[in-house]
Predict the 3D structure of the following.
Amino acid sequence: MDFSGTFEDFQEVLRTSGVEVQVMEREVSLDVQMAYLQLSKQVREHIDSEVIFAGRYELWEDYYSSIENKRKRLVGLASLGTPQAIRLLQSYQPLALRELDDWVYLALQECKLVFQASLLDHPPMFISTGLGGSGRMLRFFGALFSDGAKSFDGLQQRVISGELEYMFQQFDGRLEYSAFSGSFVTYWGLVPIDVQLNQHIKATIEESNLLGASLRRDFVLTNVKKLTLPELNKIFRRIKTHNHKHSLQ
């Protein structure tokens, strides 16, 4: 399955514009990111910087302050974009409740960006995905499938593992994880933002198959989340159904 169309358009914009980019490093689910943005929009409509900063102590008050109120305080502080707000969020980060961990991280990133925008004529473009990244690299999750839905034997596993390592070396990326589970191969790693990963994966499948790996040409690639085996099974069934319908036409 090929999910790359709009992302490749985005890559082309980056290549032609020459804009500086800043990648969010941490893995934060898109659900949390969307909830943060929605609350941030609401808070900004009635923003009062003095009231926001005066209410900062509510972050440390666990008995009288609800999680929702703390989230409002966090997005409010983030909108200030001042050195004082940045230092306050940094001091609060290691003490935050687990439920607020991602929210504190997002607030701190936004606060830094607002501060940068106030100082620079051309602030960097901030890129956030569900899987995060590092430097100018984004993290991608991928899955390959055995042709015939058979489990991979030892030789096939060594071939595929070696070809995945080689693929990431070709574009100076970093393979962080790979594993075999029945007829699936799952992996994730860091990929330079201007690399067209789809083409590399297709070439890797072809090279692996020349060495006896027996991989299907269908694959999964996403920077949204790490998919579970039940989710991959569901996708694989959809792929087989789709291909079967086309074979009958």
User: Anything to note?
Assistant: The chain has a mean pLDDT of 88. Residues 29-127 form one domain. The two ends are 20 Å apart (CA to CA). The chain has nine helices and seven strands.
